[in-house]
Amino acid sequence: MIRLALVCMGLLLMTGCSPWVKPYERENLADEIMSFDRDPIASTYLHHVYEAREAARGADGASGGGCGCN
Amino acid sequence: MAPVGVAVAATKRVIFALAALALMTVARAEVLAPDRLDVMYHSYDGGGATIDGPSILVRKNIGTNVAVSANYYVDMVSSASIDVLATASEYSEERTEYSVGTEFLHDRTIIRAGYTSSDENDYQAQTGSVSISQAFFGDLTTLTFGVSYGEDVVGQNGNPEFEEEVRRRRYQVNLSQILTKSLIAAVNVESAVDEGFLNNPYRQVRYLDPNAAQGYSYQREIYPETRNSDAASLRAIYYLPYRASLRADYRYYEDSWGIEADNWELRYTHPWGQRWLFELKYRNYQQSAADFYSDLFPYRDAQNFMARDKELSDYTSDNIGLGITYNVPEKWLWVFEKSTVNLYWDHFQFDYQSFRNVLDTEAAPGEEPFYNFDANVIRFYFSFWY
User: Fold this and answer.
1) What pLDDT, in 10s, does the model give residues B92-138?
2) Ranges of each domain in chain B
3) What range(s) does the DUF4266 domain occupy (chain A) (predicted)?
């Protein structure tokens, strides 16, 4: 629980320091290598493998809910 | 020459402004993703189980504000895992999954809805989900809320009388934040609530039995009928001084069954020339055991709840991954705006700390070596933008 709280605090601190990045300064961010989910078909499948082999689930960026197929 | 220079400079400014606008639209969260078709072959091979099959995902925008998507996915399973070898016999089965989804864009808001149906001979699952995303602060911040609800029907081959239900709810909050012109981060928090028959109807626990030849016997596992879990994760991607990116993920998880888990991952993505993209990653996962897990119970019906599922034991997993993407020249596939061929390979090593290898019949009960296995996962897919 303490570790969970620390993660949440880290997140709050992170969101508090939001420097202004102007639209014309987002060239790097627009590059495909900066995407959290460049190929959804591939990442969805790997999340399925993780959920089938691990007890942990959720908060991994995947949308929807499990298929209950593990 | 001066007017020409001014004209060139003005043209460059216009081109730069248009390029910036185009990039901005990519970076902004409130723009729908482009039309796309993906065709994938997936394969998992490890621990005596082979699971492979196709997956096809198509996505189409209708105007500028609505998108629809559909996914067809198949798992063809052939399993002779340690659980199967210990208490049953090798089996084959097939699971088919259909998903449809839609997105609606309004100003800086995207509303998504989806439905998934999964069907195999002894398990049916249906899940519906909705989410809403809102961009703030000059599109530097995107906040998403999502919920999903699923109903499963659990059956048992060879026992037509057996039918149980599971209800699954999930609640997600995601905050993504552009921190600098080279750094983007995201925080996810998700709670899940499962109710119903959460066992595997085939899996059994073992207990010491002095009357058995091998010193132990098996009985059916018994799980609680509720499971609540919370998970929080932090992810960040950094654009390196040259054109490459470094990604770091961390997730912490805990649930009402007493399991605590965390995993972290580092991923390096490196484009090479105009056509190639290489990816290298390492992921580590570890978890503690469920309160009611035991590899060997002291006697029959030793507890109210009993599990011997290795996924509920304490273990660690290491995963390395390599990936290659090739951007196919447009002249080869001129009907598409862009086409890629992708091959990703992941290698897993699972090391269990309280799940023993009962196939070692030489050892005394409870003194068998701890089980471990490795697995290879292949994703080979074609992506087409149109």
Assistant:
1) 899 999 999 999 999 999 999 999 999 999 999 999 999 999 998 88
2) 2-385
3) 21-70
Chain B residue with the nearest C-alpha to that of A42: B379
Contact of B374 with B348, CB cutoff 8 Å: yes
Task: Please give the helix or strand (H or E) that residue B56 lies within, else none.
Answer: strand B49-62
Question: Is A13 an 8 Å CB contact of chain B?
Answer: no
- Asked if B186 has any chain A CB less than 8 Å from its own CB, the reply is yes
**pLDDT over 70 percentage in chain B:** 92
Question: Could A30 and B24 be called an inter-chain contact, meaning their C-beta atoms sit closer than 8 Å?
Answer: yes
B47-86 pLDDT, tens per residue? 999 999 999 999 999 999 999 999 999 999 998 888 888 8
Name the token pair of B354. 């309280």
B188 neighbors B142 (Cβ within 8 angstroms)? no
Pairing of strands B216-220, B226-239: unpaired
Cβ-defined contact of A60 to B254 (cutoff 8 Å): no
Give residues with Cβ within 8 angstroms of B59, minimum separation 6: B33, B35, B36, B37, B67, B68, B69
What residues contact residue B13 under an 8 Å CB cut-off, 6+ apart?
none
DSSP annotation of B34:
P
CA distance A22 to B117: 43
CATH code for the part of the protein at B2-385: 2.40.160
Using DSSP's 3-state secondary structure scheme, residue B10 falls into: helix
Distance from CA of B252 to the nearest CA of A (A): 6
| Shortest distance, CA B83 to any CA of chain A (angstroms) | 13
Cα–Cα distance for residue pair A37/B318, rounded to 1 Å: 22
Q: What is the CA radius of gyration of chain B?
A: 25
> B143 has which bridge partners?
B134, B175
Write down the pTM of the prediction. Answer: 0.86
3-class SS shares of chain B: helix, strand, coil, % to 5: 10, 65, 30
Burial class for B210, CB neighbours closer than 10 Å (0-12, 13-18, 19+): exposed
- Show Cβ contacts of residue A24 under 8 Å, excluding neighbours closer than 6 positions: B16, B17, B20, B23, B24
